[in-house]
Design brief:
The complex is a heterodimer of chains A (629) and B (287).
Chain A: E1 7-18, E2 21-33, E3 38-42, H1 49-57, E4 65-72, E5 75-76, H2 82-91, E6 93-96, H3 100-103, H4 110-122, H5 126-139, H6 146-149, H7 158-170, E7 176-180, H8 188-205, E8 208-213, H9 216-222, E9 225-230, E10 233-239, H10 240-245, H11 250-265, H12 274-279, E11 287-296, E12 315-323, E13 327-331, H13 338-345, E14 353-358, E15 361-362, H14 368-375, E16 378-381, H15 395-405, H16 411-424, H17 429-432, H18 442-454, E17 460-464, H19 472-489, E18 492-497, H20 500-506, E19 509-514, E20 517-523, H21 524-529, H22 534-547, H23 583-587, E21 593-594, E22 600-601, H24 609-613, H25 622-626
Parallel strand pairs in A: 3-8, 3-9, 6-7, 7-8, 13-18, 13-19, 16-17, 17-18
Antiparallel strand pairs in A: 1-2, 1-4, 4-5, 9-10, 11-12, 11-14, 14-15, 19-20, 20-22, 21-22
Helix pairs in contact in A: 4-5, 5-7, 7-8, 8-22, 15-16, 15-18, 16-18
Chain B: H1 2-15, H2 25-42, H3 81-117, H4 119-134, H5 137-148, H6 152-179, H7 182-189, H8 198-229, H9 241-248, H10 257-285
Helix pairs in contact in B: 2-3, 2-10, 3-4, 3-6, 3-8, 3-10, 4-6, 5-6, 6-8, 8-9, 8-10, 9-10
The chains are: A alpha/beta (629), B mainly alpha (287).
Chain lengths: 629, 287
């Protein structure tokens, strides 16, 4: 704090006009940023984090009223004319947004976009700008082959796009980098890579950084100081270390300490909690849904020799059971095929090969009317609650939709049922029944989606990343809700997540997927405590790392998604990233082997082999043979 | 709770800084102008102080503007210019609204049905629309109008060959987009038949079609004027702005008002309808 402030914000206030009055988004916010410092900005969604950043950048809509003072290098920014602000943004401020898909122009090759920025911000000529763009692609860990330079944004995965967005921010010699939730949309592994990249770049260039996040774990790892915001006000400012030890306000304690407690009580640390231990009794429950050899693959790009960088691998031969009343967690990186698998199970669309049996009856043997009838029993909850709710419908109608589809009950009975399920998910019917989507927070919208699914009392809920677009407190509430529903309604649940914490907290069994294949499946405690497949171990390690504690240098910045180019025609798909890969792995594809304690793994050289070696009965489900080329 | 409500508001405001329905001159000025034109054309003549638009006395031909009983003077056959301008406005507005109502209902249903059905029937509808749209609209309307002969009803019929495919294509495109969204997926995965997803498609597509309808009305008004100008639309003794402009251009040197007054009315109508449409769009679509 002795260094002169690079960025000084004093008494910042942002108000948006609403009806005849106005609504305050940020009030009396003051902070300063020294060179080389990273300032974390945390708070629930809607607490004014983004609004304050946009005020600093001068990117708020014209209707917003901004007061206070923002000084960059001693120069007042508020109230400046747009051309001056533009010059400042060009020279001294850089911004990385939450959604890389939106900050890139879909019609321009990424190399050209970078070169354009370099021309504008560094006043380079065309060829120099091209060289600079290639260099920046290198810096952010995207191989500098001409291929990448010429790729369009849609050809890149989310993580790669975010790297491009960071490269864009690195053009010029920005003194301050504002990163607004740079990793919220990404999976754990990519998240760690991007944050490491930001941290190392900051160290190299002596930039100061404002890191906005709703994830306390991210901020506590990477920020020097943390500002906690609530309702547009700063409720706490502290050094990161102090904050974790002595949180001042109750709210902060809830955000951080509860979070830490969740993490440490999770079975990841090898101490099965009482709740978890109680759930996994020896008598296996009867099978509700049996999937065998599910295949759902997408054709390669049409152009011959086109860059095959699609990050969706589909599903190539997956078999597992979901038992009555259990929560089966399914984890894997984004692009592993989790969502594709979920939709294939529900026959939307029908899988290309393999079969799904619900209580012993194959879905593919059913006619269309019978299948529609069966859908009543299996309901889906989508990742993005805003997208799964019709913006023109009111909540009561949305929740009652499945009842109407299946013509259950009279109008009055349906209304009563709607009220019941709304109560069940914790939404007061009198308050919420008449609302529309834009009047719901994302947590409430997700509850509405769950209420809709529950209205017809299904026996299986398929939840596709139900919390990944929610902030920390809404996530916690929803997790509790799912647990309560399982206990009260005995509904089975396939819970898809890239968030290991969630799965390890509430699922009975866990399955791990990698690039269209199942790696491992078994009781959650066992998988978390002693993973058999190297990929499970990797996911667990990454989750622990982003959760808290040290960023070690030995696993700094793995090459970005080079595995996308790997050969998948034979052998183990994980071998390019596997520390234990051997010659056998390039030749033979590992089959799923059932082991003791209800576990199974698809690996030639499983970890913790001593624990597993006792019971090597090689069982390959029929599906494994049917399911692939 | 308060936190959530706050977020709700601020987010909505960030997304649509343009004004609400209640305030905003960008909406109310053009809307008032449009309303004035409609009232002038349909209500003013009923009040009784406007002469008939036909059967004028040839002895009173070519009176200048401001003559007694003839506010804008009379034309070359002695008809009151103001009366004919208002009568022409009625034709223009009737044609504009009728063609678009037909287009919206027929084309909108066709497009939504095609998108919902998918597969071969969707393909068939889409390709037929492409073929219809491939013909230049004015040429198509000319051919049809020439074949049917002049008359307001025939103009409406001819122009629906332009509005129906336009609405159908727009409705199909938006319905396809809505159909791909999770809430329709959710309905389908809950067991909904295709027919049970219309409840999602229609209310989501309709605002887009209504937005387009303002542009559609002004286009149809222009087309009607063009057809009448060429003698294929509304012909005397019925009045039409296009026909008045055609007749009046012979006298541009001696009595420019005969061509300029209906031209000004045409421009004013098209501009105010378009501006109203723009203002409505920012409010409907940014929601």
């Amino acid at each position: 704090m002795t260094a002169p402030a690079l960025l000084a914000v004093t008494g910042l206030g942002v108000r948006f006009p609403y009806r005849k009055t106005s609504i305050s988004a940020v009030q009396e916010m003051s902070y300063s940023l020294s060179p080389g410092e990273t300032l974390g900005l945390v708070g629930a969604s809607g607490s004014g984090k983004s609004a304050s950043c946009r005020a600093v950048l001068g990117l708020l809509p014209a209707a917003a009223a901004v007061s206070g003072s923002v000084k960059l290098l001693g120069r007042e920014l508020l109230g400046q004319k747009e051309p001056i602000l533009r010059a400042v943004r060009r020279a001294d401020l850089a911004f990385v947004g939450q959604d890389p898909a939106r900050s890139l122009d879909p019609t321009m090759r990424i190399g050209s976009q970078l070169a354009e920025a370099a021309r504008l911000r560094e006043r380079l000529g065309r060829t120099e700008a091209r060289d600079r763009a290639l260099e920046l692609l290198n810096v952010v860990g995207l191989a500098s082959q001409g291929q990448r330079y010429n790729a369009f944004p849609h050809e890149l995965s989310g993580g790669m796009r975010q790297r491009v967005a960071i490269a864009l921010a690195l053009t010029g010699q920005a003194r301050v980098l504002i990163a607004d939730e740079p990793t919220t949309a990404l999976d754990v592994r990519t998240q760690a890579q991007i944050l490491d990249l930001l941290a190392s770049l900051r160290a190299e260039r002596g930039m100061a950084m404002v890191l906005v996040s709703h994830d306390p774990g991210v901020v506590s790892d990477y920020a020097d100081r943390v500002i906690v915001m609530e309702h547009g006000r700063i409720v706490e400012t502290a050094d990161t270390a102090d904050l974790l030890i002595h949180p001042v306000t109750a709210r902060t304690r809830r955000r951080f300490v509860a979070d830490e407690a969740d993490r440490s009580s999770a079975p990841a640390v090898c101490q099965p909690s009482a709740a978890v231990a109680g759930r996994t009794g020896p008598p296996p429950r009867p099978v509700l849904l049996k999937a065998s050899g599910i295949v759902q693959e997408f054709s390669a790009p049409a152009r011959p020799g086109a860059r095959a960088v699609s990050d969706v691998w589909g599903v190539s031969g997956v078999s597992f059971d979901i038992r009555e009343g259990e929560i089966l967690g399914l984890i894997g990186e984004s692009g592993a095929g989790k969502s594709t698998l979920a939709r294939s199970l529900l026959f939307g669309p029908r899988p290309m090969a393999g079969e799904v049996k619900l209580r012993g009856v194959g879905l593919d043997t059913m006619g269309a009317p019978e299948l529609r009838q069966t859908r009543r029993d299996m309901q889906m909850i989508f990742q993005n609650p805003a997208g799964s709710i019709d913006p023109t419908w009111k909540v009561a109608r949305i929740v009652g939709e499945p009842l109407r589809i299946h013509a259950i009950g009279t109008g009055r009975e349906r209304r009563r049922r709607v009220d019941d399920v709304l109560n069940l998910v914790g939404l007061e019917p009198r308050v919420y029944a008449g609302r529309r989507r834009h009047q719901l927070s994302s947590g409430e919208a997700q509850r509405v989606a769950i209420a809709r699914a529950l209205s017809v009392s299904p026996s299986l809920l398929v939840c596709d990343e139900p919390v990944s677009s929610l902030d920390a407190s809404a996530t916690r509430e929803l997790t509790e809700l799912l647990q309560r529903l399982r206990a009260e309604l005995h509904v089975s649940c396939l819970l898809i997540a890239h968030d290991l914490d969630l799965v390890s907290q509430i699922s009975d069994r866990t399955a791990v997927m990698y690039r269209g294949k199942l790696c491992e499946i078994g009781p959650t405690d066992a998988v978390m405590a002693a993973p058999l497949h190297p990929h499970s171990a990797e996911l667990r390690r990454l989750a622990q790392r982003t959760g808290r504690a040290s960023v070690t240098t030995d696993d700094a910045l793995p090459a970005a998604d080079s595995s996308l180019l790997e050969d998948r025609s034979s052998g183990c798909r994980y071998r390019a990233r596997c520390p234990r890969a051997a010659a056998l792995c390039t030749v033979a594809e590992p089959k799923m082997r059932a082991l003791a304690d209800d576990r199974a793994v698809a690996c030639h050289f499983p970890l913790n082999a001593t624990a597993a070696a006792s019971t090597l009965t090689t069982v390959s489900p029929p599906s494994e043979l049917a399911g692939h080329r | 709770m308060t936190a959530l409500q706050r977020k709700d508001h601020s987010r909505r405001l960030v997304r649509s800084p343009a004004g609400s329905w209640r305030n905003g001159l960008d909406l109310w000025i053009p809307a008032a102008a449009t309303a004035f034109i409609v009232l002038a054309c349909f209500v003013w003549p009923l009040l009784g102080d406007i002469p008939r638009s036909v059967d004028g006395n040839i002895a009173l031909a070519n009176l200048p503007a401001g003559s007694a009983g003839h506010l804008l003077g009379t034309d070359t056959v002695g008809n009151d210019v103001l009366a004919r301008v208002l009568a022409g406005g009625r034709v223009a507005l009737e044609v504009g609204v009728a063609t678009n109502v037909i287009g919206l209902i027929v084309g909108g249903s066709l497009g939504i049905l095609a998108a919902a059905a998918g597969g071969a029937s969707d393909m068939l509808v889409a390709r037929s629309l492409d073929i219809l749209i491939a013909f230049p609209a004015v040429v198509l309307a000319l051919l049809i109008a020439a074949d049917l002969g002049p008359g307001e009803l025939h103009v409406i019929l001819a122009l629906t060959f332009f509005t129906v495919p336009a609405y159908a294509r727009l409705a199909r495109a938006h319905a396809l987009q809505i159909r791909g969204q999770d809430f329709v997926q959710a309905a389908r995965l809950s067991g909904a038949r295709t027919s049970q997803t219309f409840g999602h498609l229609i209310p989501n597509v309709l605002p887009r079609l209504l937005t387009f309808s303002f542009l559609g009305v002004s286009l149809a008004i222009t087309f009607e004027a063009a057809l009448s100008f060429l003698g294929l639309g509304v012909v005397p003794p019925a009045a039409s702005w296009g026909d008045m402009i055609a007749q009046g251009q012979e006298y541009l040197g001696t009595n420019p008002g005969l061509a300029l007054i209906p031209s000004a009315c045409l421009v004013a109508t098209v501009v105010s309808v378009n501006l109203t449409g723009d203002a409505v769009r920012t409010r409907l679509v940014s929601r």
